[in-house]
Design a protein that fits this description.
heterodimer, A: mainly alpha, 14 helices, 76% helix, 0% strand, B: alpha/beta, 57% helix
Chain lengths: 339, 235
């Protein structure tokens, strides 16, 4: 009974919460694209950003791990209830859209089926590359502290864990393990991929959606090609931890490298090309705020996964800004040349 | 000029087997450069700017803040979105395919290029049936179960498996810590260490086994696996 409850708690923390957060985000900004995969990706970015803020406050204040857990669960439950209330009308639309897409597109059906098979294969047959996420989470659960004790030596040297303290993704799993009363290794290696691999799949699908907005039939092709490209760490003799999404989906640098950064590059491109087509006037203030907020949230979310996550996101955003400014300058120059 | 090329070569060598996704990204970029339409030009500009910033020696090191940590270098893969870019270019090629054979050929081409990228250097280590819910290695599971069955309370074990035993069952007290003394190759010293830490069990690597000595000092062989041997105090 405890095990089943634990599984439900994990599903709530790592599956339902990001989805509800994404639905809330889409409702707030009246998203045009009502797709579950879009809501799921945005929801995860939001959850990562919110958890980073909460965890950093607690780590800097020297709180116990269970204090963070209690506040986190309380906080997200309040937000989830609000999300449920405001998106109760829109959620059926998401389901209807998914059902219609499944009914009409063979590619979509294939993508869902292949994704499910690959997730099962990943969990049942793939052995992970050694990383230290479980050790950090396990140490946190056993000692009820956060990045105080070194997981390999047991010594209290917080200064040695300065990088990890700035990117506390392992604490999210520690909180999940603490709340569910399930072993940290099981939560991280077996249960987290059930929710994190769909995040990868959703992000790839959404990248395809942005790249092929006018040729939707190409999205499944793009999806399968990216899956094929991302498979090499599974059978390669070299350990590519940062690219090993199928074996180490829980790892922060893997998530950053395979999901967050590529998604943001394509997101930046999509925003830039939409603007180029529709013109600046068509972009309402709501969209501008959404864009700006999404970049900020992505930077915070990326920071949860890797010590320089926010820096890399800022770098991508800066590059897109420069390209945007260059394009505007070019257009301005062309117009004045004609005059 | 030659020294500049050598510098680039050295920098690429420093990517530690992570070069090929970059090369894939580069190939995709060249494809887009030749075939890009108006809306794709933005993506191309981004990729060119990022590629220049991240991979040119000197500039790339400053932008990435690279140090000995290879993980940071690998972030180039994400910042360039090399996987997505390759997928994008390959999808565009796929769309131009006139029949199923040509379209299937794109998948095959990507797969072959990937194999070239990893140098046809394969490993089966990461594929196999998982025997438990913590994805712990079978050998470690055997040892951990034997420790539990033998009711060993405190145990000394090599670092490489002590964390795994803890991961599998955190109720087992595997000693660890900075400055922890564990010298399985000097038996008298090992005895002193086990007494000092009040251990009633020890895991030694198979090549350090000394059955006679362990039985002489009152330890019983509980389990022998391929790489390790577990001894527990006889009383």
């Amino acid at each position: 009974m405890t095990g089943i409850l634990g599984v439900l708690v994990i599903a709530y923390l790592l599956g339902v919460t990001p989805l509800l957060l994404g639905l809330l985000w889409n409702r707030m900004f009246r998203a045009e694209r009502q797709e579950l995969s879009d809501a799921y990706v945005k929801g995860y970015f939001l959850m990562f950003a919110a958890f980073w803020c909460a965890a950093e406050v607690c780590i800097q204040k020297g709180c116990w791990m269970d204090t963070l857990g209690k506040y986190w669960i309380l906080g997200i439950t309040v937000v989830n209830v609000i999300s449920l209330a405001v998106s109760v009308q829109t959620f059926p639309k998401y389901l209807r859209r998914l059902r219609n897409a499944m009914r009409t597109s063979i590619g979509m059906r294939g993508a869902v089926l292949v994704s499910i098979l690959l997730i099962v294969f990943s969990i049942v047959f793939l052995k992970p590359i050694a990383d230290d996420v479980v050790e950090h989470a396990l140490t946190a659960v056993n000692t009820n502290t956060m990045y105080i004790y070194h997981p390999y030596t047991g010594e209290a040297h917080p200064e040695q864990l300065a990088d990890q303290r700035l990117a506390p993704l392992a604490m999210l799993y520690a909180v999940a393990s603490w709340a569910s009363r399930l072993p940290a290794a099981m939560v991280i290696k077996v249960m987290a991929p059930v929710f994190l691999l769909p995040l990868f799949g959703s992000a790839v699908w959404q990248m395809g959606r942005q790249l092929f907005a006018k040729q939707e039939e190409r999205i499944p092709v793009f999806f399968f090609l990216v899956l094929l490209i991302s498979s090499y760490p599974v059978y390669s003799a070299v350990d590519y931890l940062e690219a090993a999404i199928w074996t180490n989906s829980w790892n922060g640098s893997t998530l950053l490298n395979c999901v967050i950064l590529p998604y943001l590059v394509i997101y930046g491109w999509a925003q830039s090309s939409v603007k180029a087509e529709a013109g600046a006037k068509a972009q309402g203030s709501r969209r501008r705020i959404e864009r700006l907020l999404f970049w900020v949230i992505s930077a915070l979310g990326a920071q949860l996964t890797y010590v320089r996550g926010a820096y890399y996101v800022t770098l991508i955003a800066a590059l897109w800004l420069i390209i945007e400014a260059g394009r505007k300058g070019y257009c301005y120059a062309i117009v004045h040349k004609r005059d | 000029m030659l020294s500049f090329i050598n510098e680039i070569k050295t920098a690429y060598a420093g990517y530690n087997n992570g070069v090929f996704p970059l090369i894939f990204g580069l190939v995709a970029m060249v494809y887009l450069l030749v075939n890009a339409k108006k809306e794709q030009m933005h993506l191309l500009w981004y990729e060119l700017a990022a590629f220049f910033l991240l991979t040119i020696p000197g500039i790339g090191n400053i932008v990435l803040k690279v140090n000995a940590n290879a993980g940071q270098v690998w972030m180039v893969y994400g910042i360039l979105a090399a996987g997505a870019l390759c997928g994008y270019a390959a999808t565009l090629v796929y769309a131009k395919g006139k029949n199923r054979f040509e379209k299937l050929g794109v998948f095959l081409l990507v797969a072959v290029l990937l194999q070239c990228g990893i140098g046809f250097y394969y490993s089966e280590d990461r594929i196999g049936t998982i025997s438990n819910l913590t994805k712990t290695d079978r050998e470690t599971v055997e040892i951990a179960d034997a420790i539990r069955d033998a009711s060993v309370e405190r145990i000394l074990a090599p670092t490489e498996i002590s964390m795994e035993i803890r991961e599998y069952d955190s109720d087992i007290t595997v000693l660890f810590g900075e400055g922890l003394a564990y010298t399985p190759y000097v038996f008298d010293q090992l005895m002193v260490e086990m007494d000092a830490y009040s251990c009633d069990g020890v895991v030694v690597a198979a090549n350090y086994d000394n059955y006679d000595w362990f039985t002489e000092v009152g330890y019983l062989k509980v389990l022998q696996t391929e790489n390790y041997i577990l001894y527990a105090r006889g009383d």
